Amino acid sequence: MDTIDEERADAWFHALSDRTRRDILRRVMRGEQSVSSLARNYSMSLTAVQKHVVTLERAGLITRRRSGRETLASGQAGAVRSAARLLAELEDVWRERIARIDDLLGAEAASLPAAPQHPPAAQHRAAASSPPRKD
Amino acid sequence: MPVTDIRHDLDALTLTITAEFAAPVQRIWEIYADPRQLEKVWGPPEFPATVVDHDLAPGGRVTYYMTGPEGGRHYGYWTVLAVEEPESFTYEDGFAHEDFSPNTDLPVSTCVSTFAAQGDGTLATYVTSFASREGLQTVLDMGVEEGSRTAIDQIDGLIA
């Protein structure tokens, strides 16, 4: 993960470290809800629930919008399981393949003699296509 | 580190990864032209690949299976679309049934591999594209190749 992902993960873990916030997120992932209707599920003030909603929003896990006198919250499934993340996983697959090619080439180089002393003339074509080793 | 550049195109669902190898283009080509070498680099150590058919020519097929830690086999195939030996080849990579007929329920990716001489070595470019985000998602959910599990996966579990 790069730094931005690390920061994002920090924000996510902070947001999800609280049981009420996890519960709010589960509810709004199922569909948009007003903050006041969410608050009815918990034995805490509307203000306290609003603070939890803001924390989730800052982490990019939900969005809020105003509708009349209500604040509506909805989950951002896309933020969590985004195309960016999918491509990042695919990147891992290819990075591993490239590392295995590099290993294969490295093992081969290690098993070759350090430097041919007098390459036979018949091999000049092969020698031309594989430049002299510098090591 | 052989990987030199990575580009993610989120709109086109395309991953472009560039690597430098300390071997000439012809040597890199031979890895793909030789099924025994290809299977060494295709699957991860915990899912080793076995290449069965191998016809790296336009219209040709390459078939393989990967054997999981529990002995289960995951079958796959390439349909080779274009070959410019030794500079590039293009293929579709899909899932297959046990008889290597394409499993059309699962998505197919299109891969273009290009090799260019760079000094004494090779600059390799791999471009992988998916037709849809659902396709990419399905491929990764298959767990064909388990990448490292990240914090983000744990969040997926939490809110599922």
What does this structure look like?
The complex is a heterodimer of chains A (135) and B (160). Chain A is built from seven helices and three strands. Chain A has 135 residues and is mostly helical. In chain A, strands 1-3-2 form a three-stranded antiparallel beta sheet. In chain A, helix 2 crosses helix 4. The radius of gyration of chain A is 28 Å and the shape is rod-shaped. By secondary structure, chain B is of the alpha+beta class. Chain B is built from four helices and eight strands. Chain B has one domain (3-159): Alpha-D-Glucose-1,6-Bisphosphate, Chain A, domain 4, CATH 3.30.530. The A-B interface holds A 1, 5, 9, 12-13, 16, 22, 25-26, 29, 75, 80-81, 83-102, 104-106, 108-109, 129-131, 134 and B 2-3, 6, 8, 10, 13, 15, 17, 19, 21-24, 26-28, 31, 37, 40-42, 44, 120, 124, 126, 128, 133, 136-137, 139-140, 145, 147-148, 150-152, 155-156, 158-159.
Features:
heterodimer, A: 135 residues, mainly alpha, Arc Repressor Mutant, subunit A, 2 domains, 61% helix, disordered C terminus, B: 160 residues, Alpha-D-Glucose-1,6-Bisphosphate, Chain A, domain 4, eight-stranded antiparallel beta sheet, globular
What is the topology?
The complex is a heterodimer of chains A (135) and B (160).
Chain A: H1 3-16, H2 19-30, E1 33-34, H3 35-39, H4 46-58, E2 62-67, E3 70-75, H5 77-80, H6 83-111, H7 124-129
Helix pairs in contact in A: 1-4, 2-4
Chain B: E1 3-9, E2 14-21, H1 25-33, H2 35-42, E3 49-54, E4 61-67, E5 73-84, E6 88-95, E7 109-118, E8 121-130, H3 133-141, H4 151-159
Antiparallel strand pairs in B: 1-2, 2-8, 3-4, 4-5, 5-6, 6-7, 7-8
Quick take:
Chain A has seven helices and three strands; from the N terminus they run ααβααββααα.
**Helical residue percent of chain A?**
55-70%
Domains of chain B, number: 1
Strand fraction of chain B: 35-45%
The proportion of residues in beta strands of chain A is 5-15%
Q: Structural class per helix/strand content of chain A?
A: mainly alpha
Major pleated sheet of chain A: 3 strands, antiparallel
Give the radius of gyration of chain A.
Answer: 28 Å
Q: What is the number of beta strands of chain A? A: 3
